[in-house]
Every structure is written in C-alpha cells, then in structure tokens.
C-alpha cells in the first residue's frame, strides 16, 4: 500500500453545476442532483456517471454518488475529472473530507472550489482505493437493500388499505351488503375517532441530552417510517413528547406530505402534530393520516396564509372515514402492525450499519487500517 501527498487540485477537478428550474425539467431518465438530493428526472444530462456531487450553496458538504448519467444542479459542485482516481473512492474521501468547513458567506453559505485547490491531502494507490471502496460499499449495499425492503413494505401497507377501505374489497365483501357506500356492520366516523392529538410540551432544560429528536427536516416525504433522528442535546426551544408508534404529522406546509410512525420515544418540533392511536386503531390511523387524500384535505383546510400554511387540527379531526366492524379492524391492525415491525427492524439495522461504516471511514482514509 502506497500513499502520496498532493494538492487537492491534483486529486480531482470540481465544476459548478448547471442552471435548471423545476419548471424546465422535462420528465426523463436522468436525475437532476441538487445540493442535498435528487430534485427530479430530466430528459437530458450534463455529466456522465458514475459521478460525485457535493452541496455547494445553502446546504454545504452533502456528498452524493450517482451511478448513471445525470444533470448536476447549479446549487452543487460535481467532479468533472477524476484524474485517474476511482469514483467510488472519491465519494468516500469527500464524505470524510469535511467540505462544509471550507464554506464562506453568511446569509447563504457557499462553497468556493478554488479555496480547496492548495489544500494538502494524502491518497493511496488505485489498488488500495479499490479495496477501501469495496469495504465501505459492502455497508452501503446492505443499507440500500434494507431501504428497498422498507419501501416495498410501505407500498404493501398502502395497497392493503386501498383494497379494503377505498375499493371495499375486504375479506368477505362478496357477502356483505353496502348501503349508501357503507358496508353492513361498518359505521361512518371522523378522524378524531381514531386518535388523540398529544400536546405534551417539554422545556429544553427538562430534556435529557441523549433523547431522540425528530425535527421536520428528519421526516421524509411520502415515507411512513421515521428512521431518522438526532440527539436532543442542541435543542433550545419547547418540544412535544412522543412515544413509540405515535404518528408525527408535519404541520407546516402539509403538502410536503411528511407523515410517519415513530420507532422510539422522543421529542419533536412543535411544527409537527403528534397523534396517538386509540385501541386497535393504529393501522387505520397510520394509513389514513399518510394517504394522499387526507394530506390534501389538511392542506386545503389550513388556517393561515399561502406562504406558511399550517394544518388545523379542528378541521382535520372532522375528516370523514369509514370504521369497519371489529373483526375487520383487528385483522387490518394486525397486518399493518406486522409490516411496521419489519420496517422498524430494517431501520435499526440501517442505523447500526451507518454507525459502523462511519467509524470505519476516517480510519481507512487516514491509512490507520491497512487493507
């Protein structure tokens, strides 16, 4: 194994991304990569994959590996020339590099690629780069596989809900009379029949530093599994307590569709609503709260202006639903609960894999561990 010291400019060439608004995106196969994520898919690309993209403006230092040809957005920098280095190694190197510490500006932090040019770095030969990348990729491949399984479980849960409660093809529907859209033995109800809104406020001084904290930024869009959280040691304002299996609903701009169930006990931003299911209502609550129709209803009934609309519980609780007979309700709840237990297991595995990878990353990049 041989390591050499060189200037950053001799390692890779970074290039600023290219302008493209959401309105200009023509649906296609090529990911448009912004400073933090894929913002859409375009019918043209500006860079060939595999590629490495780094947050340049606003959110600095988020590093993304793109397998296919892609369009790097102007809020990012991308590697135009790998200069003979392995792209996957470059990706892991940049994750370990601490790009955000080299940003400038105040109101909108910006990364200037020229400021990196003369920084001294150490890199290994190409064979060692490949071995390091293979070791770290093994973790990421397992993480990606778990994420795919979670997505499939989410889709299966929503598919079951639509089959039973939208299409009304529940077990025994062939023998059940339906009058005015209500199956025999079922009742009309409202959202508040499913849950209680929890507003258990806690002050920063009373929050244990290690308590899991889920802010709006940690709640994914259109994913019911809340597997991202941080410790509450930096919390400086009042929060709401939640417990495992409570449903968190992003109150600000509800059209962002941020709804999911908690895997652990913790605290959340007061910009989230906390719903706690009544007896045997967890599955139905989770599926209705995360459905497109309920999210849309929560948006159109917002009580504030267009710039910062906030969901209104007094309107949400009136949302009309169908409540099945006890046998169907318990069967549905059991099935959804089984799906969510598998999601939780996979999510906790992901967190463990990430922690193991992240501990290993700096040791591999420094040459402390020989490969």
Explain this structure.
With 371 residues, this protein is α+β, with helices and mostly antiparallel strands. Helix content is 31%, strand content 25%. The strands form eight sheets. Strands 15-24-21-22-18 form a five-stranded mixed beta sheet, with helices on one face. The chain has a five-stranded mixed beta sheet with strand order 16-20-23-17-19, with no helix packed on it. It has a four-stranded antiparallel beta sheet with strand order 2-8-5-6, covered by helices on one side. A hairpin with a 5-residue loop joins strand 9 (103-104) and strand 10 (110-111). The N and C termini lie close together (8 Å).
Write a concise keyword list for the protein shown above:
five-stranded mixed β-sheet, 6 helices, 25% strand, 25 strands, elongated, single chain, 371 residues, alpha+beta
Major sheet characteristics: 5 strands, mixed
Low-pLDDT regions = none
Radius of gyration: 24 Å
Beta-strand content bin:
25-35%
Distinct helical segment count: 6
End-to-end Cα distance, whole Å, is 8 Å
Mean pLDDT: 93
Strand order of the largest sheet: 15-24-21-22-18
Q: Which percent bin holds the helix content?
A: 25-40%
Ordered list of secondary-structure elements with their pairings:
Elements (H helix, E strand, L loop, with lengths): L2 E5 L5 E4 L10 E7 L4 E5 L8 E5 L7 E4 L4 E2 L3 E6 L5 H11 L5 E2 L5 E2 L8 E5 L1 H41 L11 E2 L2 E2 L3 E4 L4 E4 L2 E2 L9 E3 L10 E2 L3 E2 L7 E4 L4 E4 L8 E4 L3 E3 L3 E6 L4 H8 L2 H9 L12 H4 L3 E4 L2 H41 L5
Parallel strand pairs: 3-7, 17-23, 18-22
Antiparallel strand pairs: 1-11, 2-8, 3-4, 5-6, 5-8, 9-10, 12-13, 14-25, 15-24, 16-20, 17-19, 20-23, 21-22, 21-24
Helix pairs in contact: 2-6
